Amino acid sequence: MDYRLFLLPLAGLFIGWLTNYLAIKMLFHPKKPLNLGLFTLHGVFPKRQDALGEKLGNVVANELISTEEILDRITAQAKGDDVQQILGRKIDQGLRKLVDGIPMASLLVDDSLIAKAKGLILKEFQDGIDEWLEGLQSKLKKNLDIRAIVEEKVSRFSSEKLEAVLFEILRKEFKFIELAGAVLGFLIGCVQIAILTVGR
């Protein structure tokens, strides 16, 4: 047997890895169109950056997070027990400081009166929070366009920033593609050896 045949799997491994490596690189390079006469080379992501921003904005706004979800979270926090407890404590402290700061007031104001005043003030605060939330929801529904924000952010990325972000997200997948190319190339080389040596 010609031992040079065993170079076929190694050559296949190298070629498989190299082609996939170059294919991944060509997703991002060249960053600017390169005219080669019959055709123009331009990295897929730099060329389609605006379209990527639009698609990503739609996915984020429609599938991941919406303005309504953000508003629901804000409303839940603003009306939550934590806020009520903080407001109640601060109102109680403020009323007691007010009473302590007025001579003779402690003779006229007892704990039950402070508790009553605290309840009234807390209700007014809660009504104010509700009113504020209604105004905030109205403004955010008009001005908080998640799709447009994501689209604008992505379209403003430099080519280098876009490449860095996508590599950070897809690093393992890109490595797997390179490895898969090498393995497939090696296997094809082994098949070639089998074909060339059968019947000899």
Keywords:
mainly alpha, 200 residues, two-stranded antiparallel sheet, elongated
Describe this structure in words.
The structure is a single chain. With 200 residues, the chain is mainly α. It has one domain. The protein is 80% helix and 2% strand. It contains nine helices and two strands. The chain has helices spanning 7-25, 44-47, 49-64, 67-78, 81-101, 105-108, 111-143, 146-156, 159-197; strands at 34-35, 40-41. A two-stranded antiparallel ribbon has the order 1-2. A hairpin with a 4-residue loop joins β1 (34-35) and β2. The longest helix has 39 residues, at 159-197.
What percent of residues are in strands?
A: under 5%
Regions with little confidence, pLDDT below 50 for 5+ residues: none
Largest sheet properties: 2 strands, antiparallel
Overall pLDDT metric: 85
State the order of secondary-structure elements, H for helix, E for strand: HEEHHHHHHHH
**Strand order, largest beta sheet:** 1-2
Contiguous helical run count: 9
* Terminal-residue CA separation: 9 Å
Counted up, domains total 1
**Considering DSSP H and I runs of 4 or more, what fraction of the residues is helical?**
over 70%
What is the strand tally? Answer: 2
Return the structural class. mainly alpha
Radius of gyration: 33 Å
Overall shape: it is elongated
